[in-house]
Amino acid sequence: QVQLVESGGGLVQPGGSLRLSCAASGSIFRINAMGWYRQAPGNQRELVATITSGGNTNYADSVKGRFTISRDNAKNTVYLQMNSLKPEETGVYYCNADLKSTGSRWYAYYWGPGTQVTVSS
Q1: Among positive and negative, which fits the CA dihedral 20, 97, 1, 45?
Q2: pLDDT single digits (tens) 46-76
Q3: Burial code of 15-37, b = ≥16 C-beta within 10 A, e = fewer?
Q4: DSSP conformational letter for 40
Q5: What pLDDT band is residue 30 in, cutting at 50, 70 and 90?
Q6: Using CB atoms within 10 A of its CB, is residue 41 exposed (0-12), middle (13-18) or buried (19+)?
Q7: d(Cα 105, Cα 85) in Å, to the nearest integer?
Q8: E-strand spans in the chain?
Q9: Is 47 exposed, middle or buried (CB count within 10 Å of its CB: 0-12, 13-18, 19+)?
Q10: Would you call 28 helix, strand, or coil by DSSP?
């Protein structure tokens, strides 16, 4: 079985920083792109940042210059460094991976259970 688990969320003041981590484990053959998504209270889940297996990155316009996504392929782990956080960026942050398991013939999207980030005074 394959699973993704996020960590690093918590309560932070506006303007503060957090570093999220997401580790994939289990019977993994290969991981292509990985990403972070956010779901704010009462809103849809939205893209925050993605990174390909080769290290190419893409960000939502609202976080450019403040957030940085990175990955460690040897550890099957993706990170999200979040700086200058704003209250409207409060929400549950989910990790995503385009992944092929050793028991499957195809790639599929996997999701972690999410980690809560609260930006408040």
Answers
A1: positive
A2: 999 999 999 999 999 999 999 999 999 999 9
A3: eeebebbbbbeeeeeebebbbbb
A4: -
A5: very high
A6: exposed
A7: 40
A8: 3-7, 10-12, 18-25, 28-39, 45-51, 57-59, 67-72, 77-82, 91-101, 108-111, 115-119
A9: middle
A10: strand
Q: And the tokens for 24?
A: 């994939």
The token pair that represents 91 in the structure block: 């929400």
Tell me what pLDDT residue 41 has. 86
The count of residues in the chain is 121
Confidence of residue 86 (pLDDT cuts 50, 70, 90): very high
